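Protein 1 of 2
SEQ + STRUCT:
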Amino acid sequence: MSATDPTVVLGTIGSDAHAVGITLLDHALREAGFTVHNLGAQTAKTEFATAAADHDADAVLVSSLYGHAQQDCAGLHDQLAAAGVDATTVVGGNLAVGQTDFETVKQRFEEMGFDRVFSAQTGFEAVVDAVKTELDVDERSPTTTTLGA
């Protein structure tokens, strides 16, 4: 982890155009003292990997609400490794379509290499707390990095 505030790269993966949740999570992370690089909606795996490498990210947070996260996230960890990124990875949202129970979905994403997996019903505070735990972060003051920087 970097010597300064912990850095996260955040975005909505694949063709998913939902951006409200990541914008709210962006604000919650900043309030908790994280430096956030919000890639926005419809972000390719390669963009996550490049941004994580460029910003020396401590964590990569991936959102998906349209139910196709498994397809969109396939190979993400390979892309991160190829870019030299060794960061905590978190995925959350409505990750699968149909009647699949969340524990089954969670197991699939953990098998893909994600450190934390959250359902769409998870509150922002729980995600922030989990990222803090993963990164062993103490309370810090908020940063002033601009949205999308």
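Protein 2 of 2
SEQ + STRUCT:
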Amino acid sequence: MKRQKRDKLGRAHSNGYQAGLGGKTKEQCPYQNIDAKSQWLGGWRDAISDRNLGLFK
């Protein structure tokens, strides 16, 4: 059985989260599409929040 890929917006959120954990700035968002960019920034904000709470170093 083939595995389904995650939808593009879910992937954008995940990529933004990883970017936030990696210390990238929000200006480094690679997406131009407004929906994908919004999801990426949401993931980025979640990661920054988690880092500030001490969940990641």
